[in-house]
Specification:
The structure is a single chain. This protein is 62% helix and 0% strand. The protein is mainly α.
């Protein structure tokens, strides 16, 4: 037997499983998707009223985490990016200051996810970079560190 094919983690009782790193979303995947669709409609109505801060707060509230919720994650990302795209550059700092620290961290996660999606940089790359710059100014570099070290991915 070749030593390269042995899974040494199987013999280590102190190995850390990904499921032990954070609590998964207690909702089932169908409920998470339904919540994301409902949230998208609520965000659209808030945007039509001109309430950008409220729309962003709604979009960032209880994001989907964990496995088997990829469709809800993508839908929520689209919702957040639509809010970011519809915001004027002069309004961004005031909107960011109205967010809680957790919401700022979640927004940074979505900005990084949007930057990492293939093809999204062509569509909204400059918008995401502008939001990243303003969010770093408001929340500081600690926001980036918290996002990079958090295991719960959006």
């Amino acid at each position: 037997m070749s030593f390269r094919k042995i899974d040494i983690d199987a013999f280590d009782e102190d190995v850390l499983q990904e499921s032990e790193l954070y609590e998964p979303d207690p909702r089932d995947p169908a409920q998470v998707l339904a919540d994301a669709r409902q949230k998208q409609g609520t965000v659209r109505s808030a945007l039509s009223r001109g309430d950008i801060s409220g729309a962003l707060n709604i979009a960032l509230d209880s994001p989907p985490y964990g496995p088997n919720v990829d469709e809800a994650k993508n839908l929520t990302l689209q919702t957040v990016v639509s809010v970011l795209n519809s915001t004027k550059g002069t309004e961004i700092p005031n909107v960011l200051k109205s967010l809680s620290q957790d919401a700022q961290d979640t927004l940074m996660k979505y900005i990084y996810k949007g930057m990492g999606m293939p093809g999204w940089g062509d569509v909204s790359g400059s918008v995401l970079l502008a939001w990243h710059e303003k969010l770093t100014d408001v929340a500081g570099t600690g926001c980036i560190v918290r996002v990079m070290s958090d295991r719960r991915t959006v």
